[in-house]
Amino acid sequence: MATGNGTKESPWLLKTPPGTSDYTMHKDEDKQILVCTVGKTVLHYDLRCIADLHEMLKQHGDWMELGSADEQKPAKEGTVEAWGRSESNLIGGWYGLKKGLRGRFGMYLPPLMEALGLAELEHNPKNNRMRAI
């Protein structure tokens, strides 16, 4: 479970689904983004991704593979990662906002969704899945 309240001063402290890496996330309400900090790397995601991902998972109705991938690599079809960059999602494309660092949606958003009580998440070494609560 994450600590923090999602502000810049008190970000959510999260672990990747396999539990191998720590990272933080917080909301920047002014810019309407989620700021994800992994070591010295900072990624940005459209803030709507939380509600949109939850809605998509509810409609999907079952477990969905995460399928995390870097922006430069193709995402496996039918995964959270593929949805996070698909022209058929609610914003019509990438939820990741920093060119070159738009991927990894399927790695960093699911633990936040779990911490917020919006989803169940598996924590296996590989091939984790999630579903809406």
Explain what you see.
- With 133 residues, the chain is an alpha+beta fold.
- It has one domain (12-132).
- The protein has helices at 49-60, 80-83, 105-115, and strands spanning 12-15, 22-28, 33-38, 41-46, 64-65, 119-121, 129-132.
Q: Please report the distance between the alpha carbons of the first and last residues.
A: 15 Å
- The share of residues in extended strands comes to 15-25%
> In total, how many domains does the architecture comprise?
1
Report the total helices. 3
Strand order of the largest sheet: 1-2-3-4
Mean pLDDT: 96
Indicate the radius of gyration in whole angstroms: 13 Å
Q: What is the number of strand segments? A: 7
Q: Name the structural class.
A: alpha+beta
User: What's the assembly state of these chains?
Assistant: single chain
What kind of sheet is the major sheet?
4 strands, antiparallel
Helix/strand order: EEEEHEHHEE
Helix content: 10-25%
Shape: globular
Point out poorly predicted stretches: none
Short overview:
The protein is α+β, with helices and mostly antiparallel strands.
Task: Outline the fold blueprint.
Blueprint: E1 12-15, E2 22-28, E3 33-38, E4 41-46, H1 49-60, E5 64-65, H2 80-83, H3 105-115, E6 119-121, E7 129-132
Antiparallel strand pairs: 1-2, 2-3, 3-4, 5-7, 6-7
